[in-house]
Amino acid sequence: MRAELSGQPPGEGAGSKTFAGLTGAWLGLSLLKFGNPVILDRLVQPPDGVWEFIFNPWPVAWGYWMLAALVIAGATLARVKVAAPRWLIVLPLVWFVWQLAAAARTVDAALTRATLLHFAACIASFYLGLFGLSQVKQRTWFWMPLLAGFVWVLWMGFGQHFGGLESTRQLIYQQPNWQQMPPEYLKRIASNRIFSTLVYPNALAGAILLFLPMLVAVVFRMSARLENVPRGVLVGLLGYAALACLYWSGSKSGWLILLVLGLVAMLRLPLRRRAKLAIVAVALIAGLAGFFVKFSDYFRRGATSVTARFDYWRAAWQITTAHPVFGTGPGTFSVPYKQLKAAEAEMTRLVHNNFLEQASDSGVIGFLAFFAFITGSLTVLYRKLKAESVLFCVWLGLLGWTLQGVVEFGLYIPALAWPAFLFFGWLLGVEMKSTTPD
Predict the structure, then answer these.
(1) pTM (two decimals)
(2) Residue 144 near residue 438 (C-beta atoms within 8 A)
(3) Is 312 in contact with 357 (CB distance < 8 Å)?
């Protein structure tokens, strides 16, 4: 209303810009501070002092309070009527309600409580994007703080690669009783694979898959007034830094998924079909060749992480067949897995598959609701957004997040899950005819 009285169209006033900027800042901060799985949040201590406040992770409850403030602010802009299919609007609520039902029969109340709070934040993020952020027409204020957070993640990754990890490793080994630190942390530090501000290298790869396509498109559009050379340098630097961090993360699935995203993007180029097929074939051959050269030693050693994941998935299937209706409770896969895992298999807290985790934790209905929401949204959005470059690249990032969810647990990392749900809601709520350039 205030936007209309001031002569500005709805969604372009100072209030909407402030809301967009705060939302982008929240997502940027999430990348920097909420990169651990929610079931491990009990290990995150509030920062003590300025340096810990700047460089250490924050308790996830701080992110919840920020989100609550955003929901209140977004309510002033919200428009309940949107063009998205009603079944897609309702499915996230169906999924969450079933999580609540499954929680009543959980085998570990503490794990389930932490997971439910996080899932509630995911649902709030979805509707914040659907009813609030989708009404913002000028998005520059949203993209700038998010881009700053992503660049900081890449900067930290470069620092780890060029000596930071080794310095941290030596500092830890000089501490008395360093062997008593959590095994997961010691294993992560012992490797040269970078992880930046995320819990481990594959989570960093997930952040790059989610954010790189959209932010490259945003930087390209925002730099339209520059000459071709400086514009190309800006876009190229961002792409190079992200691809370098993905390479240094050593993520096998990340490499393959990025190749898939590149092929999908190429198919959208305004070229003849024969030219497209030729480009896709060359890119596919080159990408796969590079993959096998890079990771040949890994496969010679027996591809241990692949073997471990098959054991996690086998156990998830067993748990689902034993508890098909309500599962064992949200976030509780590790409890029955202790009894089901093979003797030689590594212990894990999560399935490393978002979809199978839903089945084992909340039964078949929880799995079906989540699967239908994610795949249904991707399908509807592809048909809706393929004509708009930036929004299509947001969809491309969501496709990357979804594909990685088949082999990882990004749904349980706030830095990855909150933006994914918000972007799903935003894209479903945006009206293409009212979209203006960023």
Answers:
(1) 0.90
(2) no
(3) no
